[in-house]
Amino acid sequence: MAGFFDPLTTVQAKRLSRVVERERKLAAIVLNGNGTLLTSDARAVLVAALRDVNLVAIADGDEWQDRIAGLEAVRVLQDSAGEAARTAEFVQFVLNRQRNV
After folding, report:
1. Cβ contact 43:9 at 8 Å
2. Chain centroid to CA 84: how far?
3. Which residues on adjacent β-strands are paired with residue 56?
4. Residue 56: CB partners within 8 Å, gap ≥ 6?
5. N or C: where does the chain have the smaller number of CB atoms within 10 Å of the terminal CB?
6. Cis amide prior to 7 (ω within 30 degrees)
7. What is the pLDDT of the chain when averaged over all its residues?
8. What SS3 string covers 31-92?
9. What are phi and psi of 17, to 5 degrees?
10. Integer Cα distance of 42 and 39 in angstroms
11. Where are the domains of the chain?
12. Measured between alpha carbons, how far is 43 from 30 in angstroms, rounded to an integer?
């Protein structure tokens, strides 16, 4: 699965857990990006802490796709629009919480 994981939420953690298939390994590609809340290193550490994740790599742009192109055993899951929406929801949640203090 590839994504920004910015920040890693329970929704994303549960989604990662659901995509794990029997006898297959799960690799997470943490994408670099401008304007992320956390550094790619911090996000990679959080993703690596998940029980179902076997490998974490950090990548720029689409370079990671070129490296795995043609590998039949690899299935790529990516939801950029959903991730952007979850990040925006998280930011709004924090802002609303701070307004109520």
Report:
1. no
2. 11
3. 28
4. 27, 28, 29, 30, 44, 47, 48
5. C
6. yes
7. 85
8. ECCCCCCCCHHHHHHHHHCCCCCCEEEEECCCHHHHHHCCCCCCCCCECHHHHHHHHHHHHH
9. -65, -40
10. 5
11. 2-99
12. 7
Q: Does the structure show a pLDDT above 80 at 2?
A: yes
Which residue do the tokens 């919480």 mark?
97
Distance CA 91, CA 72 (A): 38
Q: Specify the length of the chain in residues.
A: 101
Look up residue 97 and give its two tokens: 């919480």
* CA angle centred on 40, ends 31 and 50, rounded to 5°: 85
Q: What is the pTM of this model?
A: 0.79
Q: What is the pLDDT of residues 45-93, one digit of tens each?
A: 999 999 989 889 899 877 788 777 777 777 777 887 888 888 888 889 9
The rounded percent of the chain whose pLDDT value lies above 90 is 19
